[in-house]
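[PROTEIN RECORD]
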Amino acid sequence: MSLFFPIETPGFAGDSNLGYEVIWNTMIDQVIEPTEEKEENLVNLFGIIPYHDPFWSGNLEEISRILKKLGLKVNTFFTEQQGMETIKSCARASLNIIIHPWILKGPAERFEEKFHVPYIRYPGLPIGASDTRRFVLAVAEALKLDDRLVNQVLEEEEIYVYRYLAQAIGTLSWKKFAVVADGSTAVGITRYLANDYSFTPVLVIISEPLFRQEDKERIVTELMTLEYAKPPRVVFCADQYEINQELLKQEDISLIIGSSNEEEVSSLKEVQNIVAAFPIKDRLIFNRAYAGYRGSLTLIEDLYDNL
């Protein structure tokens, strides 16, 4: 039997971020079934938007893999053949995890009020050992997970990823880079390359429209609190012409990480270009990931492939 739920999502009213929020508001109002029973080890994972994040499937799989090693069951809603039945029963979760710097503020609060499920927000895609450790510790603290298990998982994953990264030491020269992407991707890539790979971020352009000042400040805070690099200049700009002008006037960069829209300006500047953010027009992506431990290795592979 098919189920139909009327949802108003005209394209002129907003982008896929807004559509994602509208969908979940409808699920909260019409689909999710209230329950007083909770599963202590069940979590709902939000914020990685299918197709808006070109690596959404692989990113969800990698984050889910890590959480499962912590002994958790994970509702991703879009992978592992999960569907409407998973959505209906997701009020049984003990925690909602939002991986994004700003979306789902309203739906998360409505979910907590209606179904008594608290939420935490991780303000950007966790990429690499440093930020994934930070993400894991935030989840562990919220759920009061066993410290010994958490530390064991962190140690295993970090040994795994650093073993591979050791093979690349000295092969890729130091870079000054710019990132053009949505807030979550921009935060994740910038922090990873600065904190874990010692590249220098010079310019970060957030290429999606943001309207709440608190959201902009949250993104800026993430980009200003780097461990091993001077903070980059941060620009909020959704117009492609203005984005190109910002990149053209930034002289001291040797790498641009962005979408297919930045390929032309990268060619004009004669700098290395990595297509890693929406929209990606010339790559077929199934389950590649940039998130987490293993996804960070994929990002480094892409850096080497585009020298």
